[in-house]
User: Which sequence fits this backbone?
């Protein structure tokens, strides 16, 4: 629709050659994105420099020193550990929960459809705002969850403000927001499975655990893989929930990659270290997303081939 | 599957109830909280019996928030307006740029098309701060820092890849023969695009636009880094509520309710499109 205005400038009868047309159509989108690619290369350059915003005069190339320093930098290892722990815990728990809920809702009925629509709501809540909602609920003074904790004997359960339970709290928020995502994908997967194998198994009286592990799970694997990788990529980069909840604290308990890079840039103004951290994160996500895209393309082809 | 034992039925019922309670409780609780004064919020044990008040919303609308130390001016309505403006314009721009590009990628296998499509898709997976932090400096040089123009440009990083990949899938599903037949009848490629391809891909474009809107609305980090208070959307603006000391809790809750209502309402209104978009974007492409 919007392209109407774009192409109306072309005089009537003017014919764009077939070879040029696709480039003309995709060029505007590319230009917009290329403008944003430039900062990416700057980030690479920064990561090889000693560069502090507080000491701009001392800016110079130090060729890899930022990266080499990481080996002896306990802060970096903490960042790596927390990021992997966060991503691993959230993805595994969300996968189990999402699969469980999808199985519960598999049969099409009014109630099930209603519930699956309701479960969209957390997913549509901005993660940063979701964190604030949970912050209000875990407030030590009046938070309803703190009250529930005290009911089961956990007096003074401090949720995100204690180093021992901060990770648990943000993981909980992540689960609240993103489990529905996995549930939706797996439910779509489950409902698109062919029915014959299940009917045959039912006729033969095959035990249901056997059906689940030998038929349902293998057939669902492509969907599970896609959902897992999608979530893994998002989760290892999580910023919104953690920053809105604790800003990486208490102390350095939750300084995952992006939070640590943000704090490095704006608080300690150490641009070089911040950029090096982000490049490492990018390398991790790039590797993961290549795996992901290959898998995705195979899925797409399979979906087309069978359809 | 057909025959469920009574025990199983009960267990399923319990499990589903727990699921619904876990996922709905926070929304319901914050909603209730937004109609309460500090007095009823701070009761121990908590209770859902209270006389609802609209004071919190009134305070937000007038921009004068009551705190322990007096009134505080926070222009939350401005944040809300920013969210609407940024999301709507970003999606409109992304549709204008993305739909023709998606058509090109779907219909013409031109040199480098797969590489370009992948590059665009990879934006979806790159750490946003990697681009944002250097961008703060470029924006200062270009005079774009804290402008709507700059923000909308950067928001394309969220909206464009999404639209490109979802809409491309829809265009690919349209049989090329239909378009070819129309072309044979003497119509230009543009009228083919407008009269055949666009209407047939309509639902896909709607789904993609809707998702892009929600993603743009829910974005936090772009505006946190690139915008100051007067241009910030609700996601960033609401954070200031929590850090500013002594604001009444009911007002924070009311601000959250106002901030999440648009996306939740959209999600409920168009849930079928949304599920289709989400699963297409992830599984089918």
Assistant:
């Amino acid at each position: 629709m919007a392209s109407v205005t774009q192409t109306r400038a072309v005089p009537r009868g003017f014919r764009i050659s077939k070879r040029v047309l696709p480039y003309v159509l995709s060029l505007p989108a590319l230009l917009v994105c290329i403008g944003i690619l430039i900062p990416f290369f700057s980030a690479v350059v920064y990561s090889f420099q000693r560069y502090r915003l507080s000491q701009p005069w001392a800016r110079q190339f130090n060729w890899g020193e930022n990266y080499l320093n990481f080996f002896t930098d306990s802060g970096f290892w903490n960042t790596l550990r927390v990021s992997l722990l966060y991503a691993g815990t959230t993805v595994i728990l969300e996968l189990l929960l999402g699969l469980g809920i999808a199985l519960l809702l598999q049969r099409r009925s009014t109630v099930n459809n209603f519930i699956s629509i309701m479960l969209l709501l957390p997913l549509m809540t901005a993660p940063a705002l979701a964190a604030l909602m949970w912050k209000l609920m875990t407030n030590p003074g009046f938070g309803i969850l703190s009250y529930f904790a005290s009911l089961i004997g956990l007096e003074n359960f401090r949720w995100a403000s204690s180093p021992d339970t901060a990770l648990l709290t943000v993981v909980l928020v992540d689960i609240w927001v993103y489990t529905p995502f996995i549930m939706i994908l797996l439910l779509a997967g489950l409902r698109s499975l062919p029915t014959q194998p299940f009917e045959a198994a039912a006729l033969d009286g095959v035990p249901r655990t056997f059906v689940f592990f030998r038929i349902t799970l293998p057939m669902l694997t492509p969907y599970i893989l896609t959902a897992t990788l999608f979530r893994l990529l998002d989760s290892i980069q999580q910023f919104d929930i953690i920053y809105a909840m604790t800003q990486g604290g208490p102390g350095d308990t939750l300084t995952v990659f992006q939070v640590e890079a943000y704090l490095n840039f704006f608080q300690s103004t150490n641009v070089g270290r911040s950029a090096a951290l982000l490049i490492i994160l990018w390398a991790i996500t790039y590797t993961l997303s290549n795996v992901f895209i290959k898998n995705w393309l195979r899925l797409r082809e399979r979906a087309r081939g069978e359809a | 599957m057909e025959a469920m034992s009574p025990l199983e039925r009960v267990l399923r019922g319990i499990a589903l109830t727990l699921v619904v309670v876990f996922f709905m409780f926070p929304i319901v609780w914050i909603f209730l909280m937004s109609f309460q004064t500090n007095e009823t919020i701070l009761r121990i044990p908590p209770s859902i019996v209270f006389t609802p008040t609209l004071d919190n919303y009134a305070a937000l609308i007038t921009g004068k928030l009551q705190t322990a130390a007096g009134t505080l001016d926070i222009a939350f309505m401005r944040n809300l307006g920013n969210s609407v403006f940024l999301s709507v314009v970003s999606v409109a721009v992304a549709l204008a740029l993305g739909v023709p590009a998606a058509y090109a990628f779907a219909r013409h296998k031109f040199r480098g098309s797969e590489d370009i499509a992948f590059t665009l898709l990879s934006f979806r997976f790159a750490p946003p701060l990697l681009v944002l932090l250097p961008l703060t400096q470029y924006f200062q040089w270009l005079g774009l820092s804290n402008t709507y123009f700059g923000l909308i440009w950067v928001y394309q990083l969220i909206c464009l890849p999404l639209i490109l990949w979802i809409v491309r899938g829809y265009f690919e599903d349209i049989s090329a023969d239909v378009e070819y037949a129309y072309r044979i009848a003497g119509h230009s490629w543009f009228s083919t695009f407008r009269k055949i391809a666009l209407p047939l891909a309509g639902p896909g474009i709607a789904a993609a636009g809707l998702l892009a809107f929600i993603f743009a609305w829910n974005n936090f980090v772009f505006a946190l880094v690139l915008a100051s208070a007067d241009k910030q959307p609700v996601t960033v603006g609401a954070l200031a509520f929590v850090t500013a000391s002594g604001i009444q809790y009911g007002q924070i809750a009311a601000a959250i309710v106002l901030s999440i209502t648009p996306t939740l309402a959209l999600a409920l209104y168009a849930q079928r499109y949304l599920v289709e978009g989400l699963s297409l974007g992830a599984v089918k492409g």
